[in-house]
Inverse folding.
């Protein structure tokens, strides 16, 4: 059973159709990178999975549970609010602009949601937060306010914060696009390690080299559609779609 | 020359206690009204940014009415209407009428201040909170409000000082505040000198509160 399955997702903003029928499956432990020109709908797709956008039609099935089954924006899924939020918790999200809470220390950022949402004790939440901060290499920054951190460090806090909720799936929305070039590597290394540890991940990225390295499968999106999906070796060596070809020529 | 200065000082010294007593009314009225106004303002602001169309309209209309009519009219209206609405009250309940009028009026202004502060917070903060599973009210309480406080403090400080000075309107409903007492002394002693200690008292209040609000702002910006 796939962890993520979407069937023919569409999304309209008024007259503009941003997603024109996206069907994708992500198996447990898979890392899928979504690439494509800007305006392709990559971020919208990712945000729709996490209910930061609501889709117009189509199905979203997470770990076998039908989260969305929509037609004209009306959800036919029979989940209760509680079931819905439980399913949403299986997905952790990392944003392009980090969205770290500036009024909380690094440790508090990571420990907050487990404590308030999972109702873990404060001591346990903080202990786990320290462990996670260690794995992203920020042991010395636990009690610092985010204003003192670099972009790369902030993004690593954001990854630890999402992991603290023990999600089964991690969604990355252009995690390195807002970073200075010299800080990209430290964030990609953390994501790479997650991939090696078997985390299921869907990553929207412009880092083509990284995608080639880490992905089990590359999805190429343009104009609200998935035009091509293939393992990196295949898609980079032998892209079938004309738009994939010209995109890859432009970025490689 | 020396004689008359001494006489003036002696006069002022005699006014201090009655003025200070009347100033208690001014201070109590300002502080209570602004505090109630903040609480009311939070709810009206939340209504204004909510998705509920009717709620949004009601809150918008509230602000429109209370910002669009003279405060003095609101004061007179409540003073005269309260005894009609609640028979247990009479027009002697001047302080209560004033507190209600100033609170309702201040809530309208503060709602706009609070709404602007909430909306100035990066929407990404709410998205991050949502993606971590926080409910709307948790996100507001733990993430959005705490960040808006430092942006709220300066305009609410201004609002407080405006209210403190506007409370002088209560003399129109014969509530004896600092302004009313000053005028009473002025007409019985037939000297403009009484405005001096009265103005100094107003300045002390506005000065102390300005200082307090500055401290508060610095405190809430400490994580930057």
């Amino acid at each position: 059973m796939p962890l993520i399955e979407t069937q023919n997702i569409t999304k309209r903003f008024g007259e503009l159709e941003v997603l024109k029928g996206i069907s994708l499956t992500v198996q447990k432990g898979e890392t899928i990178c979504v690439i494509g020109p800007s305006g392709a709908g990559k971020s919208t797709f990712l945000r729709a999975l996490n209910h930061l956008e609501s889709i117009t039609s189509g199905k979203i099935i997470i770990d076998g549970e039908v989260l969305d089954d929509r037609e004209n924006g009306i959800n036919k899924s029979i989940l209760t609010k509680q079931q819905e939020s439980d399913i949403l918790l299986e997905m952790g999200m990392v944003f392009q602009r980090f969205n770290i809470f500036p009024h909380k220390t690094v440790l508090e950022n990571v420990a907050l949601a487990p404590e308030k949402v999972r109702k873990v004790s404060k001591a346990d939440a903080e202990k786990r937060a320290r462990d996670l901060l260690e794995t992203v290499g920020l042991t010395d920054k636990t009690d610092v306010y985010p204003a003192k951190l670099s972009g790369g460090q902030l993004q690593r806090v954001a990854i630890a914060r999402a992991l603290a909720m023990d999600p089964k799936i991690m969604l990355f929305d252009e995690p390195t696009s807002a970073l200075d070039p010299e800080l990209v590597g430290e964030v990609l290394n953390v994501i790479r390690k997650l991939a090696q540890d078997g985390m299921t991940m869907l990553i929207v990225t412009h880092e083509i080299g990284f995608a080639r390295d880490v992905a089990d499968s590359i999805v190429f999106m343009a104009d609200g559609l998935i035009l091509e999906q293939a393992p990196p070796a295949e898609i980079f060596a032998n892209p079938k779609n004309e738009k994939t070809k010209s995109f890859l020529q432009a970025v490689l | 020359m020396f004689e008359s200065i001494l006489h003036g000082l002696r006069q002022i010294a005699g006014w201090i206690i009655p003025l200070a007593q009347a100033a208690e009314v001014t201070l109590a009225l300002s502080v209570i009204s602004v505090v109630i106004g903040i609480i009311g303002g939070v709810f009206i602001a939340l209504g204004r940014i909510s998705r509920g169309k009717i709620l949004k309209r009601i809150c918008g209309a509230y602000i429109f009415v209370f910002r669009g009519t003279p405060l003095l009219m609101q004061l007179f209206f409540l003073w005269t209407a309260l005894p009609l609405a609640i028979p247990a009250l009479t027009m002697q309940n001047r302080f209560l009428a004033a507190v209600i009028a100033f609170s309702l009026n201040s809530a309208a202004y503060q709602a706009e201040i609070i709404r602007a502060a909430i909306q100035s917070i990066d929407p990404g903060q709410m998205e991050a909170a949502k993606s971590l599973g926080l409910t709307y009210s948790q996100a507001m309480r733990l993430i959005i409000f705490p960040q808006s406080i430092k942006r709220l403090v300066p305009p609410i400080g201004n609002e407080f000082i405006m209210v403190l000075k506007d409370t002088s309107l209560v003399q129109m409903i014969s509530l004896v505040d600092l302004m009313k007492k000053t005028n009473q002394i002025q007409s019985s002693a037939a000297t403009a000198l009484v405005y001096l200690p009265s103005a100094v008292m107003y300045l002390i209040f506005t000065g102390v509160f300005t200082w307090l609000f500055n401290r508060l702002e610095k405190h809430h910006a400490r994580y930057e």
About this structure: Chain A touches chain B through 28 residues (CB under 8 Å). The CA atoms of residues 208 and 252 of chain A lie 7 Å apart.
